[in-house]
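Progress report, Aim 2. The chain analyzed during this reporting quarter is listed below.
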Amino acid sequence: MVRFDEIGYWSEIKLDIIKEYASKYSTILTAQKRPRLYHLYIDAFAGPGVHISKTTGDFVPGSPLNALNVEPPFREYHLIDLKENKVNLLKEIVQGRPEVYIYQGDCNDILLKKVFPRVAYENYRRALCLLDPYGLHLNWEVTRKAAQMGTIDIFLNFPVVDMNRNVLWRNIQGVDPGDIERMNTYWGDGSWRDIAYTTTRSLFGWPEKEDNETIAEGFRQRLLKVAGFKHVPKPLPMRNSRNAVVYYLFFASQKMVAEDIIKAIFKKYGTRGSK
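Predicted structure tokens for the chain:
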């Protein structure tokens, strides 16, 4: 039996943002005729396709269902989840739609081996990819590959709650080595330590943790300078009912027009991220 996730107001805002961008993205790519482009939607942590709103108690369509209802439609949809029960529900929802591909397993492997190869630049393929893990469950190699291919726009969840709770402690020597490795894998190496800690404000030279915004900016620079995305606007901080940032929603693309569109969408929803 599937237990549907309860999502807060800020997560509903995220779904609206992604849905609006997906609609504009699909409209633009469908309209291009020379060359004619073939565009895909990819959801790496798709879930069962439905959530429950903490605000209203109602069912809320998840990102896969929103994408499947976009007009004009994407040419293919690739939905991935680790859990069998969620994958089975997705299969029930999309039965009879041969353009939808559903995978059970680790998205880090599936994206690199099965899905991204379908988005080759020379084949006039393009894709919008949602990388929305609950925590530090994403491999930097996936993010870097998406940039290197030159064909993929991404939305990415930067999970500061998981980072702060399990890794970014005042005394980092006490952090579980497994959590350090998760952070290294998400970030791509150990350079996050140089971003997350400073000794310049400490009277005795002891390391002090930087704020969330500084750490997120360090990751934004990494998306630009290390991964190789050309356009990475400042992420949108998503907040809970206590106005605390729970994650940052990043967007990255190789196209200026994509950045312009997402900046307008972020501005539209930016004041609605807490309630």
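The chain has one domain: 6-160+219-272. The first helix runs from residue 9 to 31. These observations will guide the mutagenesis work planned for the next reporting period.
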